[in-house]
Amino acid sequence: MRAVDIIARKRDGQTLTTEEIGFFVNGYVRGEIPDYQAAAWLMAVVLRGMDARETADLTLAMATSGRTLSLRSVAPVVADKHSSGGVGDKTTLVVAPLVAAAGLPVGKMSGRGLGFTGGTLDKLESIPGFEVSLSVDRFIAQVARCGVAISGQTAELAPADGLFYELRNATATVPSIPLIASSIMSKKLAAGADVIVLDVKVGRGAFMKDLGSARRLAELMVDVGRRAGRRVVAVLASMDQPLGYAVGNSLEVAEAVEALRGRGPADLRAHCVVLAAHMLLLGGCARDLSGARELARETLRSGRALARLREMVECQGGDPRVVDDPWAVLPRAPIVVPVAAPREGYVAGLDAEKVGLATLLLGAGRERKGAPIDHRVGVVLHKKVGDRVRPGEPLFTVHAADEASLHRATEEVLAAYSWSGYPVRRPRLVRGVIGAEAAISSE
Amino acid sequence: MRAVDIIARKRDGQTLTTEEIGFFVNGYVRGEIPDYQAAAWLMAVVLRGMDARETADLTLAMATSGRTLSLRSVAPVVADKHSSGGVGDKTTLVVAPLVAAAGLPVGKMSGRGLGFTGGTLDKLESIPGFEVSLSVDRFIAQVARCGVAISGQTAELAPADGLFYELRNATATVPSIPLIASSIMSKKLAAGADVIVLDVKVGRGAFMKDLGSARRLAELMVDVGRRAGRRVVAVLASMDQPLGYAVGNSLEVAEAVEALRGRGPADLRAHCVVLAAHMLLLGGCARDLSGARELARETLRSGRALARLREMVECQGGDPRVVDDPWAVLPRAPIVVPVAAPREGYVAGLDAEKVGLATLLLGAGRERKGAPIDHRVGVVLHKKVGDRVRPGEPLFTVHAADEASLHRATEEVLAAYSWSGYPVRRPRLVRGVIGAEAAISSE
Has A227 been annotated as catalytic? Predict the structure, then answer.
C-alpha cells in the first residue's frame, strides 16, 4: 500500500477502504507519511467528501492513534458532552456538575480552541488556582471521587487529531463535515465516555452557518459514535444571538454560577436542562425525557448542582468561594461602562458574530494558538431578540482593559443590534434533535 | 497576503490573481511556503482547475523563478521543440540537426523524465563519450558555433518547476492539464527560444489518452506561449502504436541515423518533416508550410542534416562514427532474438503501452528517478498496424540482457499485437495542429 495511491483514489472520488484509511492515519502519526502527502489527501477529502463508513473508519483510526481511556473502573456509565462552540456558550460549566449531581458521572476533556472568546478551559482558568491540565490518572481519579472532572485534552489521546488539526489550519482544509466530525468524535471516543451528547450550534455565531450543514454534521457524528458502540444524541441549537447575557471568561463563570442557583438568563437555563436531560436519559437515570428533564430541574432547585460545582473547583485546586460570591474571587476589568440604547423599539436581531468579534477586540479570545487571553474583559448584554427597549435604557455593558478597546467594542456591539418598531418573537433555541429515541421539542 | 487564503480561494473554485500566483510560486521557491501548503494548493488546482490567464501567470512565475536565458546574442531567432513523450519517440535526434542544417539554430534542453524507455538524454548517452550536462555558457556557445545543442535541463532554469514536479509526483497531483502545461512551458520559456513546436502525443502510449485532453493541453500551451511573446505551434500526434520500429536507447539512435539518411520507417520520417516544417515556418525560413516542408525534405536528401548530427555529436564529445556506422560504436545487447508471427493476417493494433512496458521489463527505462538504464536493450518491430503478415515471418526482434527478461518482454510484445483477417488501414499520425496559420494535413 502506498500513500500516493490512496491520495489518487480520493482525488478521483473513490471510496477508501478501512485498511487504506488506517494505513494513512497510522503512517502519518508515525511520521512515515509526510505532511505534504497528508495535506494533499486532506484537500482531496475536502473536495471529494467521505461517506459515513469512511468517516467512522477515519474517526476510529484517529481515536486509537494513542492512548484510549476506559472509565469502566470508575462507574458503569460515564457521560461526556461536546459543544461545537458559540458565543456566550458556558453550558459545560452548568451541565457537567448538574448531571454529576443527578447521579451520572461526567468526565469531559476540552480542547482549548481558537475563537472569539476563550473555550471552557479558559473560562475555568478565570477561577484563581483552577488547574485544567490534569494527568490521565488524576482525571480518572477525580471522576471516581467527585463524579465530575473537566480537563484539557491530553496529548496522549488521539494524537492523530492534533496533528491533522494543525495541518488543516495551515492548509485551508478545515471546512469539511467528515473531517470536522472525525476530529470531534475521535477525541470523545478516546476519552472513554459511554454517553455523549453533542451540542451542535448553527447560525451567525457558529462554525456551521446553515441548518442543513449543521444537521449533516450532527447526523454524521451520531452515526460515527454509534458505529463505535456509544450512546449518542445531538442537539441542534441556534447561535444567531449569544447564549445567555455574558460573553467573556470571568463574566461567563459568574453567569454559570447564577444559572446553577436557578437564576440568570432563561435561555441558558433552559438549554442546560435540555442537554442534561439527554445525558441523563442516555445514561439510564430516567425513564423518559420528561422524567430526565424533571430530574435535571430538581437537581438545580435542590442546590445539589451548585454544591457539585464547588466540589469540582476544590478538587481541581480552584478557590471554592467562586460559588458563593463570584466577584469576590474572579478578576474584574478596570473599565466597566454601560451603554444606553440608541433608540426605542424591539430588538429584531443580535448578531452573535459581531458580539464575538467585540469580545475578541477586548482581548477575551485568541486568534493565534497560544496567544494570551484577558479573563477580565467582555460584554454583558441586557437586551436580546424579542426584548422591548425604552429610550435611554441600558442595552449592554462593556468590561474593558483600556479606552481604545472599549470604544471599538462598543461600536461593534451597537452594530450587532437590529431593530423593529413592532413586537418580535423570541427565537427558538433548539432547532432539532438527532438520535433521540423520543424527540425533544424546543423549550 | 497569506498562503492559506490563496489555498482557500482555489479550494472554493475562485480565480486567483496574477499577484496571488506570483506570491505563491515565489514563496514556495524561497522556502517561505512549506511543502504541505503547496501540496494542498496543488490538489485544489487539480480538482478546481485554472483558466488560461491563471495558467499563463503560473507558467511565467515558474519560468522566472531562476535564471532565464537569452539566445538573442546567438541568432535573431532560435528554435526549440518539445514532445510530451511516447514509445519509440526519437524525433528530437532527427529534427534538431535537420532544422539547424536548414538554417534555423536549435537550442533544446531536455528533462530526463520517467517512463517506459529513456528520454532524449538517455538515448544520446548511448553514444560513447556524448556529454549531455552542458553548462549554460557552453550550451549557448554551442548553439552559436554548431547551430544546434541538446543538453540536460540545468537546475538554474525554472527551479520552481523542479520543486513542484517532485511534490506533484509524491502527492498524486500530476494529472492536471494546467499544471502539465505550466511545467512544460515554464522550462521552454526559461530556455530562451523564440520558436517553440510542441509534439503533443495522444493515445495508449501517451500520457494523454484521449484526443480531447490532448487538444486542451495543446491549446493551453500555445496560448501560454503566445501570452509570453513566443511563436508556438502544437502538433497532435497519435501514440496508439510506437513511432518508427525501434524502441530502446541504442536502437533508437541507430534508427534516427537511418532517418537522417532518408531511410528507415516512413512514419518517423514523415513526422520529423512535419515538426521541422513548422519550426522552419515559424522561424521565417519559408514562405508557407509546403515551402517549409520542401526545405526540410531537401535538407534530409542533401545529407546536410546527417552532417549536422555529426557536428553536434563531435561538439558534445561523442564518437562521430555513430553517424557512419552506428553499430560500430553503439552498445549491443548480448541476446538478440527474432520472434516469428504466431499467425497470418493483418496487424489491426499494436498497443504502444504494452511495447513500452516490454522495454521497461528489458531495462531500457526507469520507474524511479535516478535508476540505471540499460542502453543496449529494446525491441525492434518489423510489422505495424496495417501490415500484412505471412505465417512464420519475423514479427519483431527482442534485444535483451538475459533470458528471463527476454521471455517476459516477448510475451508482452506478442500481447501488444491484435489481428484481423481483412486488410486494415494504416492510421493517421497527425491528428491536428494547434496555432498554425495554415493547418497542415496529415502526411
Answer: no
| CATH T-level topology, domain A79-325+430-434 | Pyrimidine Nucleoside Phosphorylase; Chain A, domain 2 (3.40.1030)
Confidence (pTM): 0.87
Element housing A162 (H / E): helix A159-170
Matching CATH number, B331-420, of 3.30.470.30, 3.30.1370.10, 3.90.1170.30, 3.30.470.20: 3.90.1170.30
What residue ranges in B139-273 does DSSP mark as E strands? 148-152, 195-202, 231-238, 246-247
CA separation for the pair A225, A232 (Å, rounded): 6
CB contact under 8 A, B40 and A37: no
- The pairing of strands A195-202 and A79-83 is parallel
pLDDT tens for residues B183-197?
999 999 999 999 999
Catalytic position from the list B187, B188, B271, B310: B187
ipTM: 0.85
> Is residue B442 over pLDDT 60?
no
Query: What is the C-alpha to C-alpha distance for residues A192 and A69, in angstroms, rounded to an integer?
Result: 5
Active site residue A187: yes
The label of the residue with cell 448531571 reads A99
| Surface-to-core class of residue B348, CB atoms within 10 Å of its CB (0-12 exposed, 13-18 middle, 19+ buried) | middle
For residue range B407-425, what is the model confidence (pLDDT) as tens digits? 999 999 999 999 999 999 9
pLDDT digits (tens, 9 = 90+) for B248-284: 999 999 999 999 999 999 999 999 999 999 999 999 9
For chain B, percent helix, then strand, then coil, each to nearest 5? 45, 15, 40
Q: Check: CB of residue B397 under 8 Å from CB of residue B338.
A: yes
A188 has pLDDT over 70? yes
Closest CB to A36: pick one of B5, B48, B170.
B170
Q: Distance between CA atoms of B217 and B349, rounded to whole angstroms?
A: 26
HSE-up (13 A, CA, CB side) for residue A375: 17
Residue A77 Rama label (left phi>0; alpha psi -120 to 50; beta): beta
**What CATH architecture applies to the domain B3-49?**
Up-down Bundle (1.20)
Cα dihedral A18/A157/A207/A381 (nearest 10): 160
* pLDDT tens by residue, A73-120: 889 999 999 998 889 999 999 999 999 999 999 999 987 765 666 789
Testing the interface with A: which of B6, B11, B43, B168 to mutate, by most A Cβ within 10 A? B43
Interface contact flag, A43 B40, Cβ < 8 Å: yes
What is the nearest CA distance from A168 to chain B, expressed in angstroms? 9
Residues B209 and A21: their CA atoms lie apart, in Å, by: 30
pLDDT greater at residue B207 or residue A221: A221
Q: Which of B378, B379, B374, B373 is nearest to B112 (CA)?
A: B373
Average pLDDT of the residues in B88-110: 96
- Domains of chain A, residue spans: 3-49, 79-325+430-434, 331-420
Q: Do A42 and B46 touch (CB under 8 A)?
A: no
Rounded to 10 deg, the angle between the A35-48 and B3-11 helix axes is: 30
Burial of B246 (0-12, 13-18, 19+ CB in 10 A): buried
Q: Is the pLDDT of residue A368 over 80?
A: no
Question: Do residues B68 and B190 make contact, with C-beta atoms less than 8 angstroms apart?
Answer: yes
